[in-house]
């Protein structure tokens, strides 16, 4: 049998690389396995290539549906400050934009470059194109089989990512390995992605950007909403507010529930105030064509769609729009509804909801409670955060904890 390796880390993303660096302070026999031809491919795409790696605002409420005690135990009270300091120690100075923390260069490649240099200086043995096919524990060791090799290790850190953005290597294979090792996995679903609407008018508003509030109603009950800049697309709606609520759409549709999406294009306005505003506009621009009634209030392509949906004849003067028609237009402006037809696929998602059940993990060490020597880090867990650097923070924090604990063990 081949010599036993002290620690094998499966996955060369943010969590896996951080785990390797953290572990290297305590042990020297570390092998990092990455299935793609280079480490950190998903890291390069984060923050649209700018790498929003944490946020000045950080607590368990930034992670959806996650157990507060678990996330607080993992992150502690100053995880963001410690991460910023660690980045600085490697030469990555920070830049803060609307509480979001980026490398000062605003280049994800800068973060990847220093992590790769750190792996090299810590003498971590990095094997690329080493796709792991199976993981099992026998007696007091782990057997890890890749496409062309078999390795044996005393300890393993599973940091193989989720199922989001599979082209970067996060293809869901980590869930298979987790199950092989004896862990239970909650069904992964796309999160932080766009929302598809069952509405033919979407093609007409494609490309529009506007402020709005988007809400999800599951079986007639409001379950979540978010406000910000929406990006209207040929399939439905995108942008950060849609991303934030997409996980709830994924879960509700997976439950076979009826899911309705409601969009207000006048965020902060209720029906009464919106009607008063439209009534005043009718008086002020009474000679305009109805087609131009919303001109200057909303982007033109969106205004045309909403006027058409209201049933108002676009050719009549604005002054001829009746109160009943104004009420209907008000309802559309403050709560346009459509059935949710789905979300973006795993290819379009930034992360997933679902994954390795955190009840199986010790938050102080990231070691699996029932499988000694097996640690879990990063997106593979059933913890998904909001937009704003929270998922990368989770990857770095859990990677560091798992690495330190496994290195010391």
Description:
The protein has 409 residues and is an alpha+beta fold. The protein has helices at residues 14-23, 41-45, 68-75, 79-89, 108-121, 173-181, 202-205, 240-254, 271-284, 300-310, 323-335, 390-408; strands at 5-10, 30-33, 54-55, 63-64, 94-97, 100-103, 125-127, 132-138, 141-146, 150-158, 185-191, 195-197, 209-218, 221-232, 236-238, 259-264, 336-343, 351-356, 374-376, 384-385. The protein contains twelve helices and 20 strands. The chain is 33% helix and 26% strand. Helix 1 (14-23) packs parallel to helix 5 (108-121) and helix 10 (300-310) crosses helix 11. The chain folds into two domains: 5-190 and 353-408, FAD/NAD(P)-binding domain (3-Layer(bba) Sandwich), CATH 3.50.50; 194-344, no CATH class. It is elongated and about 85 Å long. Strands 1, 2, 7, 8, 9, 10 and 19 form a seven-stranded mixed sheet that branches. It has a six-stranded antiparallel β-barrel with strand order 12-15-14-13-16-17. A three-stranded antiparallel sheet has the order 3-6-5.
Features:
409 residues, alpha+beta, FAD/NAD(P)-binding domain, 2 domains, 7-stranded mixed sheet, 6-stranded antiparallel β-barrel, 33% helix
Please state the second-level CATH architecture of the largest domain: 3-Layer(bba) Sandwich
Estimated structural class = alpha+beta
What shape does the CA trace take? Answer: elongated
Biggest sheet record: 7 strands, mixed
Number of strands: 20
Distance between the termini: 23 Å
The CATH homologous superfamily of the largest domain is named FAD/NAD(P)-binding domain
The DSSP helix count reads 12
Question: What is the CATH C-level name of the largest domain?
Answer: Alpha Beta
- Gyration radius, rounded: 25 Å
Mean pLDDT: 96
Tell me roughly what share of residues is in helical segments.
25-40%
What is the name of the CATH topology of the largest domain?
FAD/NAD(P)-binding domain
How many structural domains can be distinguished in the coordinates? 2
Model regions low in confidence, pLDDT < 50 over at least 5 residues: none
Proportion of residues in β-strands = 25-35%
């Amino acid at each position: 049998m081949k010599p036993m390796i002290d620690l094998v880390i499966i996955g060369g993303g943010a969590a896996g690389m951080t785990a390797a660096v953290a572990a290297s302070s305590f042990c020297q026999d570390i092998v990092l396995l990455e299935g793609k031809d280079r480490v950190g491919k998903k890291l390069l795409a984060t923050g649209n290539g700018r790498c929003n790696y944490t946020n000045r605002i950080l607590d368990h409420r930034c992670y959806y549906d996650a157990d507060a005690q678990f996330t607080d135990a993992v992150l502690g009270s100053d995880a963001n400050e410690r991460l910023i300091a660690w980045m600085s120690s490697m030469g990555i100075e920070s830049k803060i934009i609307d509480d979001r923390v980026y490398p000062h260069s605003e280049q994800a490649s800068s973060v990847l470059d220093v992590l790769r240099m750190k792996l090299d200086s810590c003498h971590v043995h990095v094997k690329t194109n080493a796709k792991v096919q199976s993981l099992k524990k026998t007696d007091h060791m782990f057997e890890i089989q890749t496409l062309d090799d078999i390795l044996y290790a005393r300890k393993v850190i599973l940091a193989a990512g989720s199922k989001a953005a599979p082209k970067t290597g996060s293809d869901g294979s980590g869930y298979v390995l987790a199950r092989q090792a004896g862990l239970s996995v909650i069904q992964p679903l796309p999160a932080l992605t766009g929302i598809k609407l069952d509405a033919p008018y979407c093609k007409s508003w494609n490309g529009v950007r506007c402020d709005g509030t988007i809400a999800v109603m599951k079986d007639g009950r409001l379950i979540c909403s978010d406000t910000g800049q929406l990006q209207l697309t040929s399939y439905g709606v995108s942008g950060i507010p849609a991303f934030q609520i997409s996980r709830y759409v994924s879960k509700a549709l997976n439950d076979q529930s009826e899911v309705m999406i409601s969009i207000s294009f006048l965020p902060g306005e209720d029906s009464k105030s919106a009607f008063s505003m439209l009534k005043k506009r009718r008086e002020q621009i009474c000679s305009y064509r109805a087609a131009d009634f919303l001109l200057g209030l909303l982007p033109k392509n969106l205004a045309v769609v909403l006027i058409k949906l209201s049933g108002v004849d676009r050719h009549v003067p604005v002054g001829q729009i009746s109160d009943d028609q104004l009420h209907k237009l008000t309802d559309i402006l403050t709560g346009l509804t459509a059935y949710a037809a789905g979300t973006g696929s795993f290819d379009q998602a930034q992360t997933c909801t679902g994954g390795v059940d955190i009840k199986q993990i010790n938050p102080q060490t990231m070691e699996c409670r029932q499988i000694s020597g097996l640690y879990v880090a990063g997106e593979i867990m059933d913890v998904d955060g909001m937009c704003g650097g929270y998922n990368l923070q989770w990857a770095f924090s859990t990677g560091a904890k798992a690495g330190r604990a496994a290195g010391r063990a």
